[in-house]
Design goal:
Helix content is 30%, strand content 15%. It contains 12 helices and 17 strands.
């Protein structure tokens, strides 16, 4: 059933373009609304669809050892326009998939303009979409027009949707040295749903703390871009290095306070300061560094944070950063098919849902388009297995995140790239062909191969394909 009413997609970035393509490929009419060139933004340079405003890289294209490479592969199998145009406009970039940004945007634009069921409307939707539009995908990204952002804010009740926020790093749980760190909640308080041992604690002595503060103050930091200058800073979310600059003891009386904790590895010695990490996903594979929002450059974060006892070999699922961002508190506001619970005719896609990166945005757009298409046809779509990269990403956005904020404090849900920490753990650890335990790099690579092999098999089953070994190489 094609239906006479078109599905409307607001925003012609990567997510909106991919969503419109998926709807059109289902044989349904779709109107893609893009405000450029009638109204420009501080970041865009052209009126092309799917314009890349920052890097031209889609990151690693390795589907065996990299989560985003696996996501590339899954999107290709699902008929992604974005990946098709990226492959056609690839430029040399080692193991990464980088594109000629102009050629890429032109290819996406041409494909959508040529599709018989796609209408491209060059107009701004300055407010909530008209009530007569019964199915809408909002894919307006981090530069959502103020009027539309205000309309969304009114529906959701969120205090703010657009702001500068400094986000904290997230660490893979299995890279933390528990021979130095330990589980304990401050004063052993269990709290609602807790156990009294919900945080990972990393102790510092006086000398380690002093060196750490000096490194924070002297570390290389990012600066604001010119077009971001008018955006307010997110209140209550100060970068850790800004707090350190206010005085050497500031952090020790803030996020690094040592009170209410006893180190079981050395119980007679009180730590001078403590770094706490809090569980970040339902699987318990990721932990965020509490209060460690930062605008240090990424290389500096790795260098400085690995001086913390217990984190010497930390692997980061996401490093901290400073963003001008517009995104929803998706775990609270969206259902499993990315619809707004308060107004289900509205569905969201792309960075506004709380994912990061070109590929992740387009991937969420892909599924939003498919969800909208089957809904229009009166059918339902079986959820993607959470063992796939795309299923894991959607699971994190719509329900896999552990909400830990308290009333009056910043939201704990933060934008994130796809990474292996979002995948359910393996049932058993991979072993060497001779049955022996693997260690170090061999162990890490074997685990990643097992996760990506499992994902390929799960997606094949979801697609109704014959169960057969799939080539690991990009398809």
């Amino acid at each position: 059933m094609s239906g006479s009413n078109p599905i409307h997609v607001v925003g012609g970035g990567l997510a909106g373009s991919e969503a419109a393509w998926q709807i059109a490929e289902a044989g349904l009419p779709v109107v893609l609304h893009e405000m450029r060139p009638l109204r420009g933004t501080e970041a865009h340079q052209t009126d092309g669809l799917a314009e890349l405003v920052c890097s031209n890289s889609f990151r690693s294209d390795d589907p065996q050892l990299n989560a985003v490479g696996l996501l590339h592969q899954e999107m290709r199998r699902l008929g992604s326009l974005i990946m098709r145009c990226a492959d056609a406009n690839q430029v040399p970039a080692g193991g990464a998939l980088a594109v000629d940004r102009e050629g890429f945007s032109q290819a996406v634009t041409a494909a959508l303009e040529a599709h018989p069921t796609v209408t491209i409307a060059r107009e701004e939707i300055d407010g909530l979409p008209p009530a007569a539009w019964d199915s809408v995908i909002v894919a307006t990204g981090p530069l959502t027009a103020p009027g539309l952002a205000e309309g969304i804010r009114g529906l959701t009740g969120a205090e703010s949707l657009a702001f500068f926020d400094a986000i904290a790093p997230i660490v893979h749980r299995d890279s933390i040295d528990m021979g130095k760190a330990w589980f304990q909640s401050r004063y052993d308080k269990a709290g609602p749903g807790g156990t009294g041992a919900d945080y990972i604690n990393c102790p510092l002595d006086r000398e380690q703390y002093a060196a750490f503060i000096t490194a924070l103050v002297e570390g290389d930091k990012t600066s604001f871009k010119e077009w971001e200058a008018s955006t307010p800073y997110f209140d209550g979310c100060l970068p850790i290095e800004v707090m350190a600059e206010r005085g050497p003891e500031t952090l020790r009386h803030g996020p690094m306070k040592p009170f209410g904790l006893t180190n079981p590895h050395n119980p007679t010695v009180k730590a001078y300061a403590i770094v706490q990490l809090r569980q970040d996903n339902a699987l318990g594979t990721l932990y965020n560094m509490v209060g460690f929002q930062t605008k240090l450059r990424h290389a500096e974060q790795v260098r400085i944070f690995r001086t913390i006892p217990g984190l010497e070999n930390a692997e980061f699922a996401r490093l901290g950063g400073l963003h001008r961002n517009t995104y929803l508190d998706s775990p609270r506001l969206l259902d499993a098919t990315l619809r707004l619970k308060a107004e289900p005719r509205l569905r969201f896609a792309g960075q506004i849902t709380g994912c990061e990166g070109y590929v992740e945005s387009a991937a969420i757009g892909l599924m939003a388009g498919r969800f909208a298409a089957v809904e229009r046809e009166g059918r339902s779509l079986e959820p993607l297995p959470v063992t796939t990269a795309l299923g894991a990403l959607i699971g994190h956005i719509t329900g896999g995140h552990v909400s830990a904020e308290e009333e009056g404090t910043p939201r704990s849900f933060q934008p994130m790239n796809v990474n292996f920490g979002l995948f359910p753990p393996l049932d058993r650890a991979p072993k060497a062909p001779d049955g022996k335990r693997l260690r170090g790099t061999e162990k890490a690579q074997a685990k990643k191969r097992a996760l990506t092999d499992r994902a390929r098999a799960a997606l094949g089953e979801w697609l109704g394909e014959e169960p057969a070994p799939l080539p690991a190489a990009a398809e």
